[in-house]
Design goal:
The protein has an eight-stranded mixed sheet. The protein has a six-stranded mixed sheet with strand order 2-1-3-4-5-14, sandwiched between helices. Strands 7-8 form a two-stranded antiparallel ribbon. It has nine helices and 16 strands. The chain is an alpha/beta fold and about 325 residues long. It has two domains: about 150 residues, 3-Layer(aba) Sandwich (Rossmann fold), CATH 3.40.50.10740; about 170 residues, Glucose Oxidase, domain 1 (3-Layer(bba) Sandwich), CATH 3.50.30.
Amino acid sequence: MIKYPRPIKPNDTIGVTATSSGVVEKEDILKLDLAISNLENLGFTIKETKNVRTNSKFVSSSPEERAKEFMNLYQDNNISMIAQVRGGEFLMEMIPYLDKNILKKSNPKWITGYSDSSLLNFYLTTNFNIATVTSMNIFKFGMPKLDPSLLLHLEVLKANDKIIQDNFKYYEEERNLDNSFNLTKKVIYKSLYKEESITLKGRLIGGCIEAIATIIGTKYDNTTKFISEFPEGILWYLEDFMANPLDLYRLLWQMKESGWFQNSNGFLIGRTRALKEVEDFTYLDALHKVFDDLNVPVIYDVDIGHLMPTITIINGSLGTFKYKNHKGILIMEKK
């Protein structure tokens, strides 16, 4: 059974911590300050951990310190939600230092983030059945005028039960310097197997491929047991940061051969930068080589990942995805 935190509400306190990289550059500090100001203007109180504004060698602090800061927020009854400040490279280092007993016994609270931060979300859901959220890191809120997708992210966390999200109309190919979204490219969802209309349903789980694949084969990998617990099947969502087609194929192959894709009803693949072929090996070659023998639908170029905006996905929720005419609707239920 999935454990859902209570919906957030006005005047709640959001804990902000750096589970991977912190924020130190002057321009980034200004964006973080703006993000906090924007959230405070929406009625929230922000509580930062001391590692948010530090960084060295791609991490905000030691693995032990990052885990301690996170656990302090998790045990704080005044905190309703923990927002990871940004992504990075080495979140996996802190996982051994998380207190498993506290995570099992404490009342759950929302954990949000994407990119490297999605590994923590994936680990918490697959090991402790805690519903977590893949969407914007807190840093994304640092724009002069909040994009509607950011407000939608908060609405998902406020919802009591059913959440419905349509695809966005446009996405950004190149970022604006002020952190706002540069929405110039039309959103077009695509079916790998050319279905014109299809409905997928299953328990949602996924994240950034480069991040979540790091725990394969370790004692922190409870994925095959988790996916076996849901007779309704699994609806995977996956995206990559900077993998080329060769990297993408290797990572997806490793997930598949580790048993992660058993009991799967389908796959939602986020937009990618891995479109440049390597010699004659393409992005679509990578997808076909992994998914063709699974005999399930694969929808790609979905509003998930690093090319903003992104829909908000609750790990562990029961998802229904309706695809038709290159558009999509995701319905999530807290069951």
